[in-house]
Amino acid sequence: MDHRLSPELEELRRTVEEFAHDVVAPKIGDFYERHEFPYEIVREMGRMGLFGLPFPEEYGGMGGDYLALGIALEELARVDSSVAITLEAGVSLGAMPLHLFGTDEQKREWLPRLCAGEILGAFGLTEPDGGSDAGATRTTARLDPDTNEWVINGTKCFITNSGTDITGLVTVTAVTGRKPDGKPRISSIIVPSGTPGFTVAAPYSKVGWNASDTRELSFADVRVPAANLLGEEGRGYAQFLRILDEGRIAIAALATGLAQGCVDESVKYAKERHAFGRPIGANQAIQFKIADMEMKAHTARLAWRDAASRLVAGEPFKKEAALAKLHSSTVAVDNARDATQIHGGYGFMNEYPVARMWRDSKILEIGEGTSEVQRMLIARELGLVG
Ligand SMILES: Cc1cc2nc3c(=O)[nH]c(=O)nc-3n(C[C@H](O)[C@H](O)[C@H](O)COP(=O)(O)OP(=O)(O)OC[C@H]3O[C@@H](n4cnc5c(N)ncnc54)[C@H](O)[C@@H]3O)c2cc1C
């Protein structure tokens, strides 16, 4: 299998690399410090077509695939993870459920604006009482036969892109009934922003991803038309498993970018910083550390591209996506720690990108399935059952 990029993907990579360096890098530190969503940068990403990368042209997309999305995410995260996660969540969690499971009407209504980055979509799965055990959803949706509307009640937490000025919809998972064995029937329902009874809390104060939007959402007798059901009633569990399998590849690409960004910054700093009369990079201890960091970023890249190639080819990719997510997030945390060490005291100062990378790395071992969940998935794929 050849993981070198086609000329088209290489051009995309270069374009996003340039954007990340010329537009994102000079501005993002201030947004991050102020915990502010970078609307102007996101608008520009929309104009570039990044939010439409893996979607068909008939809905305003770029006609690409998950490889293209991963390339863009990796290049953005080499410089900053807040903008990268805004894109990842906007595409993989916000728009992809509509693309995969929506009716033609739902796609026509939402996808063109989502692809253009004019609005952002969010995916509300996690609840205060549990994220890993997503089958334990407590949010409910009841179909009111008189009005033919879903009536939604419940709370979702940690939802990315859910409270920006340009958030257009949140797809929420809710229990819509019980199976004969008593297990919940979970369904996905589209809730447009601003629907009465749908409340968005203030942004969380987070350790990292400080220029991205994460909120708690409450639903108190929220009414949406029956036609807002996404796909079939009772298929929500299977839908979000698919969404998360694909999303893991995107997160793995993002984590690879962070790991590579740590190498970029460390090589630069090791040449500039002098101690004991010579650059710190002249010391083999530093050289070996950076060589290991490069090795880790490289293997993470191979892992996500392998999973993405399988997805694009229509082959099974569940195990490879979990392997890529587990490996790349571990590597991102390792590289962020080592890059900070190489930067000494300056590595602890927020004005240095590695400080931001350190703060942004930890969530990669938690979001879209923790490292423990990835190990559970891999073990299950190997035929080990508990
Ligand atoms: C910044 C941020 C953005 C997010 N964005 C979104 C979003 O857009 N949409 C969304 O739906 N969610 C989102 N999440 C939620 C995220 O996906 C969950 O936090 C994550 O899946 C873990 O769930 P939890 O926090 O409930 O932890 P828990 O499920 O409570 O897990 C706690 C710990 O127990 C471990 N654990 C649990 N079960 C087992 C087991 N069987 N064996 C071994 N260990 C176990 C976990 O690995 C973890 O270490 C976001 C979270 C954050 C922090």
From TrEMBL:
Pfam families: Acyl-CoA_dh_1, Acyl-CoA_dh_M, Acyl-CoA_dh_N
Cofactor(s) annotated in UniProt: FAD
Protein's UniProt keywords contain Flavoprotein: yes
Gene3D superfamilies xrefs: Acyl-CoA dehydrogenase/oxidase, N-terminal domain (1.10.540.10), Butyryl-CoA Dehydrogenase, subunit A, domain 2 (2.40.110.10), Butyryl-CoA Dehydrogenase, subunit A, domain 3 (1.20.140.10)
Alphabetized UniProt keyword annotations: FAD, Flavoprotein, Oxidoreductase
Keyword Oxidoreductase (UniProt): yes
Residues in Acyl-CoA oxidase/dehydrogenase middle domain copies: 122-222
Domain Acyl-CoA dehydrogenase/oxidase C-terminal per the UniProt entry, residue ranges: 234-382
Domain Acyl-CoA dehydrogenase/oxidase N-terminal, residue spans: 6-118
GO molecular function terms attached to this record: acyl-CoA dehydrogenase activity; flavin adenine dinucleotide binding
Family per record: Belongs to the acyl-CoA dehydrogenase family.
Protein name from the UniProt record: Acyl-CoA dehydrogenase
Lineage, broadest ranks: Bacteria, Bacillati, Actinomycetota, Actinomycetes, Kitasatosporales
